[in-house]
Design goal:
Binding site for ATP: 132
Number of strands: 12
Number of domains: 2
Largest sheet: 6 strands, antiparallel
Strand order of the largest sheet: 1-2-3-4-6-5
Keywords: ATP-binding, Kinase, Nucleotide-binding, Serine/threonine-protein kinase, Transferase
CATH architecture of the largest domain: Orthogonal Bundle
Region (Disordered): 1-35, 57-77, 426-450
Shape: globular
Organism: Heterosigma akashiwo (Chromophytic alga)
Helix content: 25-40%
Structural class: alpha+beta
Family: Belongs to the protein kinase superfamily.
CATH superfamily of the largest domain: Transferase(Phosphotransferase) domain 1
CATH class of the largest domain: Mainly Alpha
Number of helices: 16
Strand content: 5-15%
């Protein structure tokens, strides 16, 4: 923000205007319009007016010579970055504008706190791509540097297709914006849930998704990689093709190396692990927790733990899975622990028992409907959904959602679980998703963010 926009600047100019009020009564021209005022007391406002006009004209002159219209319609007027950015530091995208002399922009397909994602066409290959355009503000550009380092690490000498990770084709800086060019994928797992009217998908499809995501996590957990995704959720898992069930994991914008953790406030709330909620040291096990939440949600159609805030999030976890081990609570910094728990002299207990009691939160077995025909009884009698299969799924989910990360299964261990190794010969083939589907409407959802 310019220093000219501060409250202090406005306060400093208000007193002189009051002092000149009597003078204005003797003049036919209002005091604030007189040249002497504009070049003295009102100098700051004068410069602001000149700057706005200058950059607006400059933006008009420098726009591409196409007849395309702006596709970034929220705050399209040029405000920052020499008029190229809106008031949120997003680049003002114009249809058919060409980035890096190669990529023809078509339409914005997603927007988030990081910036925006635009569908484009590669003029050299004719392929559609997704370009992630980071905001030009310094803090976002610094985080983008970390994202670029991680994407480069993942790509070096590795077949990302084999590991179910989105492929970064190239990256560049354009008009002070870091840009990432990714392969264009289809819609995400949250959109697939919407297609099911939030009734969830079959256990067979859950099994397929689980196997593929675990292969990704096993790759990320390799000692030479050691990357924590930090934001695994249905919106960040995309179908490769709209008529097939193969997936890829996207959005490494919040990721870090396990030995270079930068943030304590990570993971989307519904998928946030107990150790992160408690402010404890974390590692790749937090992604395993998120996966457990995702697999439960993909089958039930609802988040496993849908807290309205961090306190409710923790209480929902406690009501379903029990109290975290005392060792975790003992080690938790008080500023985190005191939000949820207190010590009564005998042991740890929730700080607000009445709030816990008021929550309509089932235990994990009842959430899955292990002995009642699945969630809401909707899978009663369906092939591949009998009690024995649900018992295996419940066991896997329990291991993925172990409260203590030391007890949580690793991706490699999970891949060897009986639920995921069930013979496909006794199960129906996964149903492909519909040929087309609208974009989601929840915040930061459904965007291909790399």
């Amino acid at each position: 923000m310019s220093i000219f926009d501060t409250n202090k600047s406005r306060a400093e100019t208000s007193a002189p205007k009051t002092q000149m009020k009597k003078t204005s009564q003797r003049s036919s021209r209002p005091s604030t319009k007189r040249p002497v005022y504009r070049m003295s007391v009102g100098l700051i406002d004068t410069y602001k007016t000149i700057n706005k006009k200058y950059y607006a004209q400059k933006k008009t002159r420098q726009q591409p010579s196409t007849n395309g219209s702006s596709t970034s319609t929220d705050n399209w007027a040029g405000v920052y970055n020499s008029g190229y950015d809106d008031d949120e530091y997003n680049y003002i995208v114009t249809e058919n504008e060409v980035f890096a002399d190669r990529y023809v922009l078509k339409e914005r397909i997603g927007k988030g706190s990081f910036g925006q994602v635009v569908r484009a066409v590669d003029q050299e290959t004719g392929d559609e791509v997704a370009i992630k355009i980071i905001k030009s503000k310094r803090q976002f550009m610094l985080q983008a540097k970390t994202e670029l380092d991680i994407l480069t690490l993942l790509k070096e000498g590795n077949d990302l297709d084999q590991h179910n990770i989105v492929d970064m084709i190239t990256s560049f800086v354009y008009r002070n914006h870091q840009c990432f060019v990714f392969e264009k994928l289809s819609y995400n797992l949250y959109e697939l849930l919407k297609k099911s009217n939030f009734d969830g998908v079959s256990l067979n499809l859950v099994r397929k998704f689980g196997n593929e995501i675990l292969k990704t996590l096993a790759f990320l957990a390799r000692p030479e990689i050691n990357v924590i995704h930090c934001d695994l959720k249905p919106e960040n898992i995309l179908l490769r093709h709209e008529k097939k069930s193969a997936i890829k994991v996207i959005d490494f914008g919040s990721s870090c190396r396990a030995h270079q953790r930068m943030f304590s406030y990570i993971q989307s709330r519904f998928y946030r692990s107990p150790e992160v909620l408690l402010g404890l040291t974390y590692d790749t096990a937090i992604d395993v927790w998120s996966l457990g939440c995702i697999l439960v949600e993909m089958h039930t159609g609802e988040p496993a733990f849908s807290g309205a805030d961090e306190v409710e999030q923790m209480y929902r976890i406690v009501k379903s899975l029990g109290m975290p081990p005392s060792e975790m609570l003992d080690a938790s910094p008080d500023q985190h622990r005191s939000k949820f728990f207190e010590h009564d002299g005998f042991g740890w207990r929730v700080k607000d028992p009445s709030k816990l009691d008021a929550l309509r939160q089932k235990n994990l077995e009842d959430i899955l409907g292990v002995s009642t025909g699945g969630p809401g009884g909707r899978r009663q009698g369906q092939l591949g959904h009998d009690v024995s299969v649900y018992t295996k799924f419940h066991d896997l989910a329990s291991r993925l959602l172990a409260l203590d990360p030391a007890d949580r299964c690793t991706p490699e261990e999970a891949l060897d679980h009986p639920f995921l190794r069930m013979s496909h010969s006794i199960l129906p083939a996964p149903s492909p998703p519909a040929a087309s589907y609208p974009h989601p409407n929840r915040a930061d959802a459904g965007t291909q963010t790399g």
